[in-house]
Amino acid sequence: MSIKTVPYVPYKVKDLSLAEWGRKEIELAEAEMPGLMSLREEYKKDQPLKGARIAGCLHMTIQTAVLIETLIALGAEVTWSSCNIFSTQDQAAAAIAATGIPVYAWKGMNEEEFDWCIEQTLFFGEDRKPLNMILDDGGDLTNMVLDKYPELASG
Q: Which of 35, 59, 124, 147 could serve as a FRET partner for 111 with CA atoms 20 to 30 Å apart?
């Protein structure tokens, strides 16, 4: 496959109106995740992840939202899909999408939608820049790269 076959979609979540609820939960979770918050504070000026285009495929939960926002704060570009069709917290996905971060996840998607969501994370923005890092819980994103887009793994 090629980059031309993956049209740009900025995000896809179940219900964007859940974003406010998700944001409140993210703020609560930040208080319970001092390690990530310390990393943000210590390294935000240095931007150690500047230039990283991270395609993530982990459970799209409130805690993952804190991780995503930490990666962004450290300079990375991020796209995200869920690694499980049942684990997405829709309010978390909505809150992340509402900030402009590309996220493709909703609870209860079918297998075809699951694969579509993962494929969306491989390329960034309207100019479709390819990923240069993978953060993958179950191996689905990695398998897609190796099976359908091996050129992304040749760098």
A: 124
Dist CA 125 CA 127 (whole Å):
5
Query: Is it true that domain 3-150 has CATH number 3.40.50.10070?
Result: no
**Pair type for strands 123-124 and 129-130:** antiparallel
Write the DSSP string, 61-106. Answer: -HHHHHHHHHHHHTT-EEEEE-SSTTT--HHHHHHHHHTT--EEE-
CA distances from 15 to 7, 89, 110, 113, 140 (A): 21, 11, 17, 16, 24
Q: pLDDT tens-digit profile of 44-94?
A: 999 999 999 999 999 999 999 999 999 999 999 999 999 999 999 999 999
Q: What is the pLDDT of residues 89-138, one digit of tens each?
A: 999 999 999 999 999 999 999 999 999 999 999 999 999 999 999 999 99
Q: What is the sign, positive or negative, of the torsion defined by CA atoms of 143, 146, 149, 155?
A: positive
What global pTM score does this model have?
A: 0.95
Amino acid in position 49: L
Structural domain spans, the chain: 3-150
Burial of residue 85, with CB atoms counted within 10 A of its CB: 0-12 exposed, 13-18 middle, 19 or more buried:
middle
